[in-house]
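== Folding task for one protein ==

=== Format: two labelled lines per protein ===

==== Paired sequence and C-alpha cells ====
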Amino acid sequence: MHTLPTRQRATEAGRREQRRANPLTAGAAPLRRAIDERERCGNLELMGSRSLPPMDDDVAAVAHADGVPIQNRDGAAASLSSAGTRTSHASNATEPASTDLRKPLVIGIAGGSGSGKSTVARKVGEAISGSSVAFLDMDAYYRNFAHLPMEERKRVNWDHPDAFDMELFAAQVRDLCAGTSIDKPVYDFASHTRSTRTERIDPADALVLDGILLFVDEVMRSLCDVRVFVDADADIRLIRRLRRDVQKRGRTLDEVISQYLETVHPMHLQFVEPSKRYADVIVPRGGHNTIAIEMIVAKIQHRLRGRSA
C-alpha cells in the first residue's frame, strides 16, 4: 500500500478538518457553478415575484374606484420609456401641488385637427358634477391678420405655433386662475380675422383648455394640472375636418384638401404628434372612447374633492 509523505498527510488531514468545521465551503466550486448558471439564465422565481413600484395617491384612488388606473407619467413612481425625447425640465417633474385651494383645476386637452378633442372636452365638462366649469378653446386665440388682403390670409399657415397669440392665451388663463373674469376673443373663420365681439368668461372650479398645439408651448403646459392628448387615425381626422370646414366655416372642398396637404398634415407631424409625450393620459378613438373619458372624469372629481375637503 502506497503511503503519503508525512507532510502531505498532514495537509490533507487539515483540509478534511477545515471542511468539517465549515460545511458551507464544502463543494464550493459546484455551488459557484450553479449560482453562475442561475444568474446567467435569470432567476425566474425572483422575476416573477418582484413587486411593482407604488402608485401615486391620485392614481391609486382611481384604480380602486374604476378598476384600471390612469398612469401618471410625471409622477414620482412613473418610468419613462423614452426619457431621451422629453425636455430636461420635464423629465423629473412631479405634479404641482397648489397651495391656493381657490385656484381652478386646469385641464388641457390637445390632439390633431379633427381628432375629437373638443368632443372630449365637452363630455368631460358635462360629466363633472357639483363643480362649475369654464372652457377656453385655442382657436379663439388666432392672431388677427385683418391687415392682410383676403388672398394672403388664405395662404397663412394656421397650423403653425406662430399663428396663435399665445401671450394673450396664457395671460387670460392666469387671470381666470387668479379669480378674474376675462373677455375671450371670438374668431371669424370665414374671413380669417378676429371679430370685434368678445365672450365673457367667469372663473370656475375647473378650467378646460383645448387646442391642437396646446402642449407645444412650454408656458401653456406648465399652466395645465392635467394634460390629455386625444388620438385618432389620420383618415378619420381628415374626414371630420372636411365636414366641419365645409359645413361650418364656409370653405370649399378644394380649399380644405389643399390646406390639409400643404400645412395641416406637415404641421401635425412636426408639432402636434411630438407633443403627445407631454400628456398624462392619451385617449385613442377620440370622443367615442367612453371608458377613457369616465376614467379622466373620475380622476378630476377626485382632485376637486381633495381641494374642497
Q: What stands out?
A: Strands lie at 105-111, 133-137, 182-188, 193-201, 206-211, 226-231, 281-284. The two ends are 93 Å apart (CA to CA). The chain has eleven helices and seven strands. Residues 211 and 223 are 14 Å apart (CA to CA).
